[in-house]
Amino acid sequence: MRFEYPHKYYRGGYCLFTFTVGCGLHMLYTSPLQTHWKLVFLAVFTALFFSVRNFYLRSIRFLKSYSITVDSEGLEGLFRGQPYRYEKNQIRSIYYTREVVRFKLFHVIHIFTRDGGHLYFSNEILGFKRLRHLLLKSYPHLSYQVEHLLTDLTDPGEEQLYLAYLRNKD
Fold first, then answer.
1. Could you give the angle at the alpha carbon of 69 between the alpha carbons of 98 and 110, nearest 5°?
2. Rounded CA gap, 36 and 30, in Å?
3. Which of 74, 93, 128, 156 could form a disulfide with 87 if both were Cys (CB 3.0 to 4.6 A apart)?
4. What's the CA gap between 79 and 91, in Å, rounded?
5. Mapping DSSP to helix (H, G, I), strand (E, B) and coil, where does residue 43 land?
6. Using CA atoms, how far apart are residues 77 and 108, in angstroms rounded to an integer?
7. What angle (nearest 5°) sits at the alpha carbon of residue 150, between those of residues 105 and 119?
8. 107 with 123: CB under 8 angstroms?
9. Every domain of the chain and the residues it spans
10. Using CA atoms, how far apart are residues 2 and 118, in angstroms rounded to an integer?
11. What does the angle CA 88 – CA 150 – CA 129 come to, to the nearest 5 degrees?
């Protein structure tokens, strides 16, 4: 089953924004203003359009560069735009954690591999609960849930600390 981030919502927002700017330009040119005021409004519209357009295009590119597919043989997909494929025996551990990043709470799945790879997917991915349950069902002996709140788990070396914490907790 394939899980990806909601880049299609940003596409819809970009189309709606472009339509709104087009309507605004039409209203500007049909209004009875003097020419120099029209040029001022056109300059402001152009600056706003390009800044918001860059935001939408950056967001779409960023969100399209992350996806995960879980099947019976393993995991595959895109992480930071790079394709990956991991068989079941290549996965070392899977953590489900709660993290605070920039004052916002995220539920995150961290996947560590035997070759030192590290993948992570936040709850902004579509079908996050289904992904979590699918990984728990597919890899029950490799899945761990960290109960306390983390501030960051992006360094692969920190995995050993959390494994030790989980062993000592039981």
1. 25
2. 14
3. 74
4. 15
5. helix
6. 17
7. 85
8. yes
9. 2-64, 88-169
10. 19
11. 50
CA atoms within 13 A on the CB side of 64: 11
**Cβ contacts of 52 within 8 Å, gap of 6 or more:** 17
d(CA 80, CA 64): 9
Interval 20-27 mean pLDDT: 86
Q: What is the pLDDT of residues 96-118, one digit of tens each?
A: 888 777 777 888 888 888 887 88
Per-residue pLDDT tens over the stretch 85-101? 999 899 888 888 887 77
Return contacts of 102-109, CB within 8 angstroms, 24+ apart: 108/153, 109/135
Model pTM score: 0.70
Q: What is the pLDDT of residue 156?
A: 56
Which amino acid is it at 9? Y
Whole-number Å distance between alpha carbons of 128 and 71: 16
- Amino acid in the structure at residue 163: L
The first and second tokens of residue 22, run together, are 């087009």
Length reported for the chain: 170
Instruction: Please tell me which residue, 110 or 36, carries the higher pLDDT value.
Output: 110
